[in-house]
Design a protein that fits this description.
CATH class: Mainly Beta
CATH architecture: Sandwich
Shape: globular
Helix content: 10-25%
Radius of gyration: 21 Å
Distance between the termini: 54 Å
CATH topology: Jelly Rolls
Low-confidence stretches: 8-31
Mean pLDDT: 80
Length: 165
């Protein structure tokens, strides 16, 4: 009886250790950053939240619907961050961060990758185009998120967005 009880306890401890080690590999790392689902918050010209949503990641699952994009009127902005973190993706100082986004048309706008905790720390560009990719190195260890703002007098639609380490 003692032998069966000891075997049961060893089996239980082994299964708990296995589940802990598997869970530890699920953190957001450069190896799986492209598997992240993205959420967005849309702001009006005064900085007030007007819409929130999730961009389904078709690489992870077959979504029940296709994301049509988020439309920005003049001076409206939108922040993009991982669905599981309202702060952004964590990057250690020196990490290479790549951003890519697509608009429905060429338009004047601002695009940036911003640090969450370090005010003013960002990569940003302003110009007129319909898609853009950019690269920055994290100057500080911090959480980073994407931001786009429409400077055009006509609405634009953001149809794709990604940040990849």
């Amino acid at each position: 009886m003692k032998k069966k009880m000891m075997s049961f306890l060893l089996l239980l401890m082994a299964s708990l250790l296995l589940s802990v080690s598997v869970g530890a590999t699920e953190s957001i790392t450069p190896n799986n950053a492209s598997d992240i689902s993205w959420s967005y918050i849309k702001y009006d010209a005064n900085g007030e939240v007007v819409e929130e949503g999730v961009i389904p990641n078709s690489d992870l699952i077959s979504p029940m619907y296709t994301w049509e994009g988020v439309t920005l009127d003049n001076n409206q902005g939108v922040s993009f961050f991982p669905t599981n973190s309202s702060q952004g993706l964590y990057a250690v100082k020196g990490t290479r961060i790549n951003i890519y986004y697509q608009l429905d048309r060429s338009a004047s706008h601002l695009a940036s990758v911003r640090a969450y905790n370090t005010y003013g720390l960002e990569w940003s560009v302003t110009g007129t185009w319909s898609s853009k990719s950019g690269t920055m190195d994290a100057l500080e260890s911090d959480y980073y998120f994407g931001y786009l703002q429409n400077y055009s007098s006509d609405p634009i639609k953001v149809t794709e967005f990604k940040i990849i380490f």
